[in-house]
Amino acid sequence: MPKLTLYFSPGACSLVPHITLEEAGATFEAKPIALKKGDQRTPEYLALNPKGKVPVLLIDGRPLTENVAIASYLAKTFPNAKLLPSGDPEAEAQALSLLAWCSSGVHPRIGAFFGPQRLCDLPDSAASVTRLAGEDTAKNFAMVDKLLAGKGWALGQWSIVDAYLYVFWRWAGFLKIDVGGYPNYAKHAARMAERPSVKRALAREADAQASLDKAA
Ligand SMILES: N[C@@H](CCC(=O)N[C@@H](CS)C(=O)NCC(=O)O)C(=O)O
User: Fold this and answer.
1) pTM for the full model?
2) Does one domain contain both 93 and 173?
3) For ligand 1, is residue 33 a contact (CB within 6 Å)?
4) pLDDT in tens, 22-69
5) What is the DSSP letter of 85?
6) Are residues 102 and 170 in the same domain?
7) Number of CB atoms found within 10 A of residue 105's CB
8) In a domain, 202, yes or no
9) Does the C-beta of 72 come closer than 6 Å to ligand 1?
10) What is the CA radius of gyration of the chain?
11) Residue 207: inside a domain, yes or no?
């Protein structure tokens, strides 16, 4: 088994591989970085990921970036954990379709709330960017809610897609986005919060946040 090291930032989208590693029962080293402090832009970190983002998974010291790629790698490396569908090309592609949408559709829109000025720096434009991002996020959350109707998990059985969806739900909470209209998504989040893998990852992230705050 290769040596695995996850670079993450508490609460960020790196929680997706963090939960996944816990779900897989993997042995891994967890390295927290502080995005607020700009740790992602240090020369050492940029040597691992020139994009200056979390997550990075080191596989025997070789960096792998992008949540979708890390998800695929972990699912294949830990087949017994059944982290993604395997063996049925259409089921595999449907899972990939949802992961890709999380990464390229949902994340950029809700992510805009965390730095609207990075998308438009015209004077007084932040409110407009946030409003538009909010409208798209509402549409995306409505699609997630529909996807989860009558199901415990996005693909029927638990998969990494559920970890991804859970991260957005948590962000909506931090951002105080009104989520009252998404009852299936709310129940999904409650189920996620009960999983031991999620509890372990969140506890490690809380400890890491406390250490980062102390060091600041
Ligand atoms: N497409 C990337 C997105 C990664 C990403 O945007 N990460 C954010 C945290 S959620 C980040 O590191 N932001 C730091 C920055 O942009 O300075 C992936 O899925 O891994």
Assistant:
1) 0.97
2) yes
3) no
4) 999 999 999 999 999 999 999 999 999 999 999 999 999 999 999 999
5) -
6) yes
7) 14
8) no
9) no
10) 17
11) no
